Amino acid sequence: MQERQFTIAELSRYNGKSGAPALIAYHGLVYDVSASFLWQNGSHWVLHGAGADLTDELVDAPHSAELLKRFPVVGILHHADV
Amino acid sequence: MAKVAREMVEKTGIDVDQLVALLVKNASAELTTFYYYTILRVNLIGLEGEGLKEIAETARIEDRNHFEALTPRIYELGGKLPGDMKVFHDISACPPASLPADPTDIRAMLNVLVEAERCAVRGYTYLCNLTAGKDHRTYDLCLAILNEEIEHEAWFSEFLGEGPSGHFLRRGDTSPWVGKFLR
Questions:
Q1: Which end of chain A is more exposed for a tag (fewer CB within 10 A), N or C?
Q2: A30: part of which helix (H) or strand (E)?
């Protein structure tokens, strides 16, 4: 199966608001965190928003990227439009 | 609100509204955990369950204490708790520590308990990092809570066989660190 590719602009539409799925990117992979209690309305801890590449933000988070393994990977992020 | 106390925190560059929002979310996590742990505790029965009951009860009471200790700081900084309990529940900094489908599965119970404590440890570590050297009172409070949450995690982790911590059951009063904020 071909992996879905997201541009930054496409990813931004999946911000978890108004019924949209909550997707986040980390090191090129796009994860669906919609089912997480901690990502309700696309907001995580009032600090982070869905629909974005959070690779840099995760550096300061009090958890490792290991937690992302709990969520399905739904595609890959390509930065051609960055 | 404690006007100058808030002003002093603002002058450090901390986004006080954001800090208050985080404190409210963690206060919610404490009170909802107190509630969910009540259900877990009453279901900790039988040969395996009874052995966990005492530490689950201590963690339950200390989490309620954390809620009590956080609340004045939220109001000092100009914040408030939501008027709607349902809203308060849903903004919790940690997921509900719900009773497992099979409450006789003690390992599943332990996983719920340890995950709740780990969420708390992460949260208060973040809050300590955010306020260290800036908002001394919130830092002191969050550090006190963090000390107790780390012990809770270790208690449950040891039952899961993840290795020793050197801790023992709480002796004497609950909340040896947070107690100073409750007197």
A1: N
A2: strand A29-32
Closest chain B CA to residue A37: B95
Mean pLDDT, residues B31-51 taken together: 96
CB–CB contact B94 A38 (8 Å):
yes
pLDDT of residue A1: 46
**For chain B, domain boundaries:** 3-181
Q: Which CATH superfamily is domain A5-77 in?
A: Cytochrome b5-like heme/steroid binding domain (3.10.120.10)
What value does the mean pLDDT take over residues B106-119? 97
Task: State pLDDT tens for residues B49-85.
Answer: 999 999 999 999 999 999 999 999 999 999 999 999 9
Q: What is the DSSP letter of A39?
A: G
A40 interface with B at CB cutoff 8 Å: yes
B151 CB neighbour count, 10 Å cutoff: 21
B3-181 folds as Ferritin (1.20.1260)
- Smallest Cα distance from B126 to chain A, Å: 6
